[in-house]
Amino acid sequence: MENKINIPKEKFAFAKREGKISDKKLETKPIGSFKDAMIRFRKNKSSVVAAVIILILFLYAFIVPFISHYSVNFRDGYYKMVLPKCNAFAWLGWDGCKVQNEPQAGYDYYSSIGVEYGSSAVKKLKGISYDSDGKPRYSISVDSYERVGFAYCDLTSDEYEALKNYQNESGIQVMYPMPVTYKNQFKAISSPANIWYKLADESATSTGAALNHNADGTPIFEANYMISDNPESGKYDSIKLPSDTGGANGDEWYVYAVRNQTGYRVRVLYKEYYFYKNGFYANHLFGTNQHGQDILACLASGARLSFILAISVSILNFIIGIIYGAIEGYYGGAIDLIMERISDVLASVPFIVVATLFQLHLAEKVGAVWSLLFAFVLTGWIGIASRVRTQFYRFKNQEYILAARTLGASDKRLIFRHILPNSIGTLITSTVLIIPGVIFSESMLSYLNIVNLELSNFTSIGTMLSNGQPYLNSYPHIILFPGVFIGLLEISFNLFGNGLRDAFNPSLRGADE
Amino acid sequence: MVKYVIKRIVLMIFTFLVIATMCFVLIKLLPLPAIKSQGRDVEIILMRREMMGYNKPIMVQYYRYWKNVLHGDFGVGEQMYPSLEVADIMMQKMPYSIVLNLYSILIAIPIGLLFGIYAALKKNKWQDHLISTAVMIFISVPSYVYAFLVQYILCFKLGAFPLTAASMEEAKSFFSWTMFYSLVPAILSSAFGTVAGLTRFTRAELSEVLTGDYLLLARTKGLTRSQAIVRHAMRNAMVPILPMILGEFIGILGGSLIIENIFAIPGIGKLYTTAINVRDYNFFMADTFFYTLIGLASGLVIDLSYGFIDPRIKMGER
Hints:
By secondary structure, chain A is α+β, with helices and mostly antiparallel strands.
C-alpha cells in the first residue's frame, strides 16, 4: 500500500463551529399512507384504465338524461325496434339498416315507401335468389327509420287546423293524399297507409302487396288515391302534391282528409309528423325496444338506478359492518359468540330468499327500490364485519393499545383512533368490491322478474335484458347494449378493486381473493 | 374429531331451523294469493284452504307443517300444478338441474385445473397473462351476458343446437345423447364461470406452493422439475382445491336460476322463479328450505373435508 493518500492538515475545516446542528428541513412533502397508496395505484395501468372507464360510464348515466331528447317515458308506437343509427359512423354499419330477405311483395312494399316524397326505404339491393318455384327473393337493406313510412292519424278539428297552418308556414308537407282503402291483411305490412299504389292483385284474398311490373321487371308506381270532384274536400287548403292538378276535366282532386266522428282522419308522413309533434327527428343512437323506448336513455336510467343503489348499499354496509365488527372484535367473549351466531344465521339465508321476502312484504309499502336496498343491507354487511373483527383480534392486545389504555383512552377512542385506521385500506377495498356484486344481483333479480323496478320514470338493466330476450334472434341490439354495458362495468369494477387492494396492501399483490 | 363433526352438524341443524322458522312466519304473514279461477272452483279452493288449516293461527300451522314435512309431505300446489304434491313435482324437476350441472362441472373441472396449473407453472410469462386476463373477464362478466352470446351464436346464427331442452318423450333418458345435445348451450354457459373460478383458485394456490422451501429441497436432492411438481407441489396445492370441487358437486342439486331461465330448462331453478312470480307459497317454501339446506351442507362438507384430505389439519382447533 504505497499510494496512501496524504491530505494536508490545513485542508480540513470545521463544518460548523457555532450554533446548533440540526437536520436539514425535508424538501419533499411528507407522504402519508393514503398518498403512498395513490402512488402505487397510479403505477397499475389496468386499474387506472378501469377507473377511467368507470368514470365514463358513470358520467354517461348521469349526463345523458340532461342532453337526450328521450326519457324512459318516451314511447313511440311507430319507431319500434328501430336499429341503432349514428350519422357520423354510418359507414361503419351503424346506419339503422337491417338486411331482410323478402319475396316480391315485400320488396315492392318497401321500395314503394318514399317514392311520394323522393326517398326510399330500401337503401341497397344486395342480391336476388330464386326459390324452388322460380319466384325471386330479394336480399335488401332496409332503413328501419324510413320503413315506418306513412300512418293514418285521427285528429280533432283543432289539431287538423293547426297541422294545416304548420304546413302553410313551414312549407313542409306532412299530410299526403288518402289511398283507396285496402283490406289490411297484407303480409309484409307494418302500416296499411303505405299502400298508395295500384296492386297487381286486388282481390280480397290476396296476401301480397305486389306492384304491377313492366315486361322488363321495372315496377310501375301508379298512384291509387281517393278522388273527389271537390278540390277542397275535407276543407283541405294546404300544400298539395304536384301531380294533383285536377285531372283532365278538373273534377279529379285527391282527398287529403276524411271526416269521421271526432274530426278528421289524415294520412301523415310519419317522420315529418314526428318532427311536428316533438320538435326533432327520430334518431336513436342505440335503437329502440319493442315498446318504442330509446335504449340509450333507458340504459342511462337503469345504470343510474344501479349506481345509486350500489353506492348507497356499500356505504350502509360499510357503516354497519364497522360498528358490528368493532363491537364483536373489541369486546370478545360472550358478546362475540352471540353476535357471531346471529351473523352466521343471516349469512346462511340464500340472498334470493331474502330479496323475495322483502319484496313480498315491503314493496307495496315503501316501494321496490327501497325494499331491495334493505334486502341488500340485511346480509351485505357480514363480510365487512368479519373483516373488521379479525383486524380487531389482531391489534387489540398489542402494546400500543395497552399503552393508550394505560394513558386513559376511552373504548370509543381506542376503537376509532387506534385500531380501525390500521384496517381502513382493506375495508375500503371490500366496500368498493361490494358495488359490482350489488349491480349484478340487482340486474339478475330484475331479469328474473322477481323484483319489478319498472317505475314511472325508471327502468333497470335486468328488465331491459328480459324485454329483449324474445327478440334475441331478429333484433339482438336490444340486448347487446345493456349486456355490453354491464359486462364492461363489472370488469372495470373488479380491476379497479384489485388495483385498490394492491395499492393499500402491497404484500397481497398478485394473490387473489 | 367425532365430537367436532357432531357439534358442526348440530349447529347446522340449529341454523336451518332458525331460518326455516323465520321464512315460515314471514310467508304465513302474507295474505293468501287471490284466486284466479271462477265459479265452483273458488269454493273448492276455499274449502281446501280451510281443510289445510290456512285460516288457523300460525303456531298451529307451524306444528302441522313440520309434522307433515317429517312424513315427506310438503303440501300441494295451488297456483301452479294445482292439487299436485310439491315433493313429487320437485323430484320430477330435479333431474334436469342435476344433469345440466353435472355435465357442466365434469367439463369444467379438468379444464379449470389444467389452465390453473399451466398458468401457475408459466407464472408472469405471456401464457399466464393471457389466461389471467381471460379469467378476469369470465369471472367479472355476468353469466347471463355470455349465455345470451352463446344462445345467439350457437342456436340462432349457426342453428346448430335446439333452443330448449329436450322433453322426456324425445330423450327417453336423462343421460341420453339427445338430452346432452339439447343441453349443450346451457352446459357451456354455466361451465365458463366454473372454469374461470377454478383456474384462478388453482393458479393462486399452486403458485404459492411453488415458492415453498420444501420444493427447493426436493429439487436439491435431485428430483426433476416435473417430479417435484407432481409429487410435492400438486399434493399440497390440492388441499384447498379438493374441498372447493366437493362444494361444487353438492351445488349441482340447486340448479342455476339464470341459465335455466334463459335456456328454458324445466329444472329446480325455473320452478323457483315461477313459484315466486305466481305466488305459490308451498312451492316457494319447499324450494327455500331446499336451497338453504344445500348451502349449509356444502359449507359443512367443505369445512370437514379439509381434515380428511390433510390429516395435518386438526379440526376444531382455533
